[in-house]
Each structure stands twice: as C-alpha cells, then as structure tokens.
Amino acid sequence: MTTAPHTNCIDGHAHLAPRSFLNVVAGASKAFGVKVERSEDGHAVSLPHMPKLRPASGRLVELDSREGWMAAQGVTHQVTGPWLDIVGYTLPPKREIEWVHLLNEHVAADVSGAGDAFRALAAVPLRSGDAAARELEWAVNEAGMVGAMVPSDPVDIDVSDPSLESFWAMAAKLGVPVLLHGASHSKWDDFGPSYLAYSMGRTLDTTILAAKLILGGVMDRNPNLKLTLCHGGGALPYLIGRVEDGYKRGIERRDGHELELGGPTEYLPKMFYDTVTLNERSLRMLIDFVGAGHIMLGSDYVWGPMAQEFSGPVERTANEKELENIRHVTAENLFGIA
Predict the structure, then answer these.
(1) 47 within a domain of the structure (yes/no)
(2) Is residue 238 part of a domain?
(3) Which of 108, 152, 241, 300 makes the best surface tag, with the fewest CB within 10 Å?
C-alpha cells in the first residue's frame, strides 16, 4: 500500500558525485594514479586496488534534477553526502588528502549553488586521524558543510582504530554528526558471498563498526559525539542483546574498557539513525528502542525503494507525535536546519 507523503519532510541521507569533480579528476588522473573513462553513460572511475566503478551520471551527479522528486515527496531539505565509492580511501596518504579535499570543495560548491533546499556532508581522509580532523574542521568552518559521511569498512582501514581518535574529538567539538555508511568496496568479500553484498555487506559493516566504537569507549570519551548509523543501524538494534551479554560476561570487551553507562544497550539511544530499514516492523522496533527523537527520514538517494516511496513506511508505522520528530525535528537538530 502506498501512503501519500507529508509536506514537511527532511531527507537526511542522500548522495552526490559532482560532475565538476569528475571532470577535474579525469583531467588529472595520472597525477592521482587513477583512471577515469568518459562515455555516454557518465564517468567510470578506477581507483587503486579496486575494480572499475559503475558510471556516475544523471541524478547522481547533479542536484537540479532532484527538485521534482523532492516536491512530490514533500521534502523541504535534502542533506547529501559524497558517493562513498569515489572518496579515494585506497590512494596513498598524501594523495588521499588532496583527493578528498578536492571532492569536498566540489560538493560544497554544488550544494551552496543549489539554494537553501540542500545541505552538504563532507568526506574525510581516513589514513590519518589528524588529517581527518583538519579536513572536517575546514569543511564545517570554511565550506559551510554540516557534518561528515564516512565509509564503515573501507578495504584496508579499520575506522575504529585509535589512530582516528582526533577525528571523533573534532566532530564532538564542532557539534556535527558523523554518518556511518557501508560502501560498495569493503572487507565483505573476505567473509561473505558477493550476492549478499547489498543486503548484508553494507549494513553488517555499520553494525560491526558501531559495536567496536561503543566497546572501545569512543562515545565515553566524546559524550557529545552525534554518531549516526545509516540503514536503520544495520543489525545492531536486533543483535544488541548478544553484544550486551558478551560484554557483561567479560568475553567481548575491547582492550578491557569499562563502559561508563554500564552496558552497550545504553548507547543505542545516544546514537542517531535513518529510516532506511526497508521493513516497517524493523522500523517500529527501532523507534521503540531508541526513540523517534533520534530517527530521521532517509532516502539513500539516488538508489533503493526509499527514493520511490520516501515517507510512506513511517506514516504507516509511527504515531503522530513520533512522526513530527522523524519527518523533520530530528534532522533539524542534527544538521542545524532552521
């Protein structure tokens, strides 16, 4: 059953691969050690140690074509992060920093030029916590971006590694959210079949990373951190009982860290989530677990069923008080949208 959309919604989870950025890196591909093929289907990027990406074109590379969809879905604002497949986390450290900064410049320029209906999330380099912190500080204070979107499990990097501590501290200091989102190319191939990469790979990544960040004390050290889990938190809300039991029994503690809130379950309502569960019963469980004030609408634009029926699953699942939070209040608070 399709439900008519509400008229005051914020989309807190979308993606952009700016055409201008792709044009620039196509002309500087040798300098970065990448390959960019241009065709009628768009730009296909090949980053080091990764297969050629699908061509980026159409609604993924531009913002003006989204306005019709936003109007039809009752979306007043869309918060868009980079297409994570082109973030460049397999580049050498110095080149990664340059690549990410260039990407952020183009994302910020596209969003600021598209008017008040859009907000931008930054990418950050992940091979250095200090570099990630500096890029985030620049993105927020100089480029007007409203947070960061980070791949949950990028190829050879552990995003929960202590070397990234300064990045989490900077996000907490700036008061901006960090969205954790699975990427196409991750460690999934090491333990899961390719035909489950979309359904499980990109959600299990986030599930595992969030558990590691909790158990490692990142949220204890940064109590103001607005950690945001895309795709409804993956499987974490469903598995948190087992994580809790493992922690309480002392068999699943990270580096012996003693959680300040007593157990992992207490951290679920401290984090934020989107509605991209693709299952209304799962969404109802998430609301009951963490509260509607920590859940926002997400489309995962330009892909997936959520872009086809954006707010309908929430309209059929939540009560009126919960709906106001999920439609717009949570996102307003997270991203500073007036």
Answers:
(1) no
(2) yes
(3) 241
pTM of the model: 0.95
Neighbouring C-beta atoms of residue 297, cutoff 10 Å: 26
Map tokens 């397999």 to a residue: 90
Specify whether the CB–CB gap between 107 and 122 falls below 8 A. Answer: yes
Instruction: Assign residue 289 the CATH number of its domain.
Output: 3.20.20.140
48 assigned to some structural domain: no
Q: In whole angstroms, what is the distance from residue 128 CA to residue 101 CA?
A: 14
- Give how many domains the chain has, as a whole number: 1
pLDDT average per 10 residues of sequence, the chain (338 residues) = 71 96 93 91 89 88 92 95 92 95 98 97 97 98 98 90 97 98 80 85 91 97 98 96 96 93 97 94 96 97 78 92 97 96
The residue range of the domain holding 119 is 9-16+68-335
Residues 174 and 226: their CA atoms lie apart, in Å, by 10
Asked if residue 255 is part of any domain, the answer here is yes
Q: How does pLDDT run across 51-62, given as a tens digit for each residue?
A: 888 889 989 999
